[in-house]
Design a protein that fits this description.
- By secondary structure, the protein is mainly alpha-helical.
- The protein contains five helices and no strands.
- Helix 2 packs antiparallel against helix 3 (45-52) and helix 3 packs across helix 4.
- The longest helix is centred in the middle third of the chain and has 18 residues, at 22-39.
- It is elongated.
Length: 83
């Protein structure tokens, strides 16, 4: 799989506000992005797991920590079909 690297600038105040160091923040940022993109319906759980760097099942279990329902897209699809 081809990977691309994205570099972002993080103000020191953000690290202080998060009470974290740069390495910890760098590890969590892809997970946060994956969770949000999944929540918005922009990534499937499989693609979001790839972005987060974890297996799909682990990603689905991580969603609870961020208060995101793991099967929201599937639930909406069932509701639209009248089930």
């Amino acid at each position: 799989m081809t990977m691309r690297q994205i570099i972002i600038d993080v103000p020191e105040q953000v690290l202080l506000a998060e009470k974290t160091d740069v390495d910890t923040f760098a590890r969590e940022l892809p997970i946060l992005a994956a969770v949000k993109l999944y929540e918005l319906g922009r990534l499937t759980s499989g693609r979001a797991a790839q972005l987060a760097g974890v297996p799909r099942v682990e990603f689905l279990m991580l969603l609870e920590r961020y208060k995101v329902f793991p099967l929201e897209a599937e639930l909406k699809e069932l509701e639209e079909r009248g089930y």
